[in-house]
Amino acid sequence: MEQVCAGIDIGGTNTVIGLVSESGKICCSETISTRAYQQATDFAAAISETVKKLLRNSNTSLTAVGIGAPNGNVHTGAIEFAPNLPWKGKIPLADWIKTSLNVPTILTNDANAAAVGEKLVGAAKNLTDFILVTLGTGVGSGFVVNGDLVYGADGMAGELGHVIIERHGRVCGCGRAGCLETYTSATGVVRTVHEVLEAFTEPSLLRTLAQTREIKSSDVTEAAAQGDLMALDILDDTAEKLGFALANAVAITSPSHIFLFGGLAKAGDLLLQPLRGYFESFLLPIYQNKITLALSALPDDAAVLGAGALAWRLHQTR
Amino acid sequence: MEQVCAGIDIGGTNTVIGLVSESGKICCSETISTRAYQQATDFAAAISETVKKLLRNSNTSLTAVGIGAPNGNVHTGAIEFAPNLPWKGKIPLADWIKTSLNVPTILTNDANAAAVGEKLVGAAKNLTDFILVTLGTGVGSGFVVNGDLVYGADGMAGELGHVIIERHGRVCGCGRAGCLETYTSATGVVRTVHEVLEAFTEPSLLRTLAQTREIKSSDVTEAAAQGDLMALDILDDTAEKLGFALANAVAITSPSHIFLFGGLAKAGDLLLQPLRGYFESFLLPIYQNKITLALSALPDDAAVLGAGALAWRLHQTR
């Protein structure tokens, strides 16, 4: 029976559960809704049940589990005070899954898992110093330095989404104000849409759409692709704020590459082109024209692959 | 004849040259003025001459040279575009010293050298994740992650002094505006003094002093120690800006400790006490009350020791 590891990517909206071979292929996967479980214990049970079902259907045997989650602490195996998840406080998810599936389990920040995926099968192969930024429900990041993930002293490093970029700026789920993710996450961009619709009277595809249903960040990208000026302005403003935060982060770890991943990264050049301009303009001169700013070369399931790879590494080092 | 390495700490004002034993003791040292040499080649020649003189006087033999310098690039061995040094462009100092003294030579950022010193003989023994911040003519930083210095892809990581904390803030020597070091370096604090003296009319020890001679950052510390309200306000404002920048840096590397080193750190509790308050208030809640913010436990020659230690390590890995 083939040995596999489970790779689990917990997002603010959906959770993807996959089985990953030692060679780094996803054998099969299934998506469940993160928001459908009021109790974290029910969510953990749903994950375990899904893993068991995938194992049965693929006739494989489980070696270890890797989990990427917002505010995931690699040292404690807990999700700690995640503002974008329905459960508050510390959720000892790795312990629960380990008990229920009876295999070694590692849990880390979802962006760290995606960074490992990028290094294994994406655009970061052979890179020793890079940043992967996830632009999803929140903004996450995985920092790789000297070839290794930066976990930090407490296992919680890489919270670029909670770097304050505007003093007294937008209120954030973390309890503070002005965090990057209040502007450049998918939900942050939707907040910008509402502010702009309120503040100006210009016609826009977004205004028309907002009269019929709730706006999503993908609406901004689609309207911008059709040349909608308001949508282009919103992406430009988002790029300016992200460029500022990334330029400041470069002054700390000086990466060769920065990769964008997640929902908003699907805006592609519509975001990347203004972002490159702002990023360079904010960079300390010694870093200018050195750093590659690109979209992740990974499919959506990169974080599943990365989490699976972390599980395999956990198994190999035991 | 005892083998030694030379450890050289290049500051914006003075350069300290010492001979360091393999066990990490400084045998002897001498200070030269960094600003006395209009040509970088003359400065390099003065360093080599001083090393030779120290070797002769101590009857020791040279194994390798380690240099800590502002904007020092460990990969190229050059000082690159240092705003606080008299020579512009790229200065290939390691090559020059290597040729002149005929031993392996390593050059890095001065704060990195101090961080190595802190780890060897200071308060960072056994720590794997910490930041050392130098508050001198400029603001420098050495980030240690997973037990190793963060050099970055280009060898120029750790420029915390050039993180922008105020959009459209004070003009910086780097050509941009609002960098941390324009506020919290020794020279930044003196700029604050002049702004405050200009903007307000209150009497202050600083105002009296400014009528007789140029103000130095140590005057602020001394006036604050005597209870001078204006000086205390200036230290409070400096602490606020430094606390903000440090809290944002924590969200990236999540250190267990942050050490302050250099001229302004001599303000001790007068700076540290307000700093701790601001720092905690700006931290993401998951990091609050976890991080030790302390003065460096090193003597002034820590960077010489650190640079010497880097030279020894260079020798050992060859």
Describe this structure in words.
2 copies of one chain form a homodimer. By secondary structure, chain A is of the alpha/beta class. Chain A has 2 domains: 133 residues, ATPase, nucleotide binding domain (Nucleotidyltransferase, domain 5), CATH 3.30.420.40; 171 residues, ATPase, nucleotide binding domain (Nucleotidyltransferase, domain 5, 2-Layer Sandwich). Chain A is 40% helix and 22% strand. Chain A is built from 10 helices and 13 strands. Chain A has a 5-stranded mixed sheet. In chain A, strands 11-10-9-12-13 form a 5-stranded mixed sheet, with helices on one face. In chain A, a hairpin with a 2-residue loop joins strand 10 and strand 11. The longest helix of chain A has 25 residues. The radius of gyration of chain A is 20 Å and the shape is globular. The mean pLDDT of chain A is 94.
Summarize the helices and strands and which ones pair or pack.
Two copies of one chain form a homodimer.
Chain A (H helix, E strand, L loop, with lengths): L1 E9 L3 E7 L5 E8 L6 H19 L1 E10 L2 E2 L4 E3 L9 E2 L1 H9 L3 E5 H12 L8 E6 L3 E7 L2 E2 L31 H4 L1 H14 L5 H6 L6 H9 L3 H25 L3 E5 L7 H14 L9 E4 L6 H15 L2
Parallel strand pairs in A: 1-4, 4-8, 9-12, 12-13
Antiparallel strand pairs in A: 1-2, 2-3, 5-6, 6-7, 9-10, 10-11
Describe the structure in brief.
With 318 residues, chain A is of the alpha/beta class. The first copy, chain A, has two domains: 133 residues, ATPase, nucleotide binding domain (Nucleotidyltransferase, domain 5, 2-Layer Sandwich); 171 residues, Nucleotidyltransferase, domain 5 (2-Layer Sandwich), CATH 3.30.420.
